[in-house]
Structures are given as C-alpha cells and as structure tokens.
C-alpha cells in the first residue's frame, strides 16, 4: 500500500481545523470510553501490582517534566529559537501521550481512584481541583492538536500567517495549569490521604 504523504500533508494543511477536530474527537472519545469504564479491563494484559502501583508516581514526574518542557518551549518561541521550540513542544506532547497511555491503562485495569480524605475536603478542595484539571485537559486537546497540525503542515516562516502562536499561547497556559493541578490531585490522593 502506497501512502501519498505529501498529498495527506497538503490536505491537512488546507483543512487544519477539520483535521484537528477529527483527531481530537477520536482522542477524547477514547479517553471518555476508558474513564467511563466502557473499555473492559479484562481485554487488556494486566501488569504486575507493583507496576500498576507505580503509574501514579511516574505520571506525577511526567507531569512535572511536561510543565518544564512547556515553559522552556514558550521561552524558546519568545526568543525566536523555533527549532528548539519545536523540540520542546514535541517533548511536551510525547510526555502528555505517555501520561495519558499510562493513566488510561491503569484506569481501565483498576477503575478510578476514590478520595480517602474527609468528605468536606473532598467537596471543597479535591473535587473542584479535579474538575478544573479535567476540564482544562479536555479543552487543551483540540488546541494542542490544532497547533501541532499547523506546525506539522507548514514551514516555520508560514506559521506567522496562521493562528499557531495565538492558539499555542492559550494551549500552553492551560496545559501548564492542567498538569500542575494534576500534581495537586496526585498529592491529595497518594500523599496526604
């Protein structure tokens, strides 16, 4: 099977919003299918209890690393170091992908975690922080995918004529907040209670 990569890139270039919307829809459908326990955990190979137990800790480190790579990527863009910006943002995307695969795998196998702290803390701290974290994560997906689609289909000089910088600034800001709140959720679930 021969794939016309240049043709696909041209289509994606001309229809970046549609491509980003389709990719985001597929990605979010998968996330919600796992989160709502529509994917049977028994259909996946089960890792050891130690590996499953390590996932939240690994994901906290991944989240902190992503905050760092996003911040560095933004700094590189502001300095006009676009090659380094690209590397940092691709690293951020890879970290996000790693986080998501590990998180969804653990949720599919074990189900979501329950908060073990006091009910008032759950109601007034944990659930609001979790809600903002999840909402921002969901909002970030189409923004990040759109910014990546623009970057993947154009040379750097052509990106200045697109919404890449504007969308990227919003996506990066929301992404950092979402990752940071994810670390707060982690601390509440695994260290405080």
TrEMBL record:
The keyword Protein biosynthesis does not apply. InterPro entries: DUF420. Keywords: Membrane, Transmembrane, Transmembrane helix. The chain crosses the membrane at residues 16-36, 56-75, 87-105, 125-149, 170-192. PANTHER family: DUF420 DOMAIN-CONTAINING PROTEIN, HYPOTHETICAL MEMBRANE SPANNING PROTEIN. This is DUF420 domain-containing protein. It comes from Halorarum salinum.
């Amino acid at each position: 099977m021969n794939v016309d990569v240049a043709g696909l890139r041209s289509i994606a270039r001309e229809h970046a919003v549609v491509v980003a919307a389709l990719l985001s829809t597929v990605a979010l459908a998968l996330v919600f299918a796992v989160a709502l326990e529509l994917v049977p955990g028994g259909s996946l190979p089960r890792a050891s209890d130690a590996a499953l137990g390590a996932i939240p800790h690994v994901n906290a480190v991944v989240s902190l690393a992503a905050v760092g790579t996003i911040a560095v990527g933004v700094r590189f863009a502001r300095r006009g170091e676009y090659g380094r910006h690209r590397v940092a943002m691709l690293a951020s995307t890879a970290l996000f992908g790693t986080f998501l695969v590990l998180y969804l795998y653990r949720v599919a196998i074990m189900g979501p975690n329950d908060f073990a702290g006091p009910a008032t803390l759950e109601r007034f701290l944990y659930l609001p922080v979790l809600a903002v974290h999840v909402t921002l994560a969901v909002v970030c997906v189409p923004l990040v995918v759109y910014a990546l689609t623009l970057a993947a289909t154009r040379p750097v000089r052509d990106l200045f004529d697109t919404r890449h910088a504007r969308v990227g600034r919003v996506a990066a800001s929301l992404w950092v907040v979402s990752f940071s709140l994810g670390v707060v959720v982690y601390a509440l679930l695994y260290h405080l209670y």
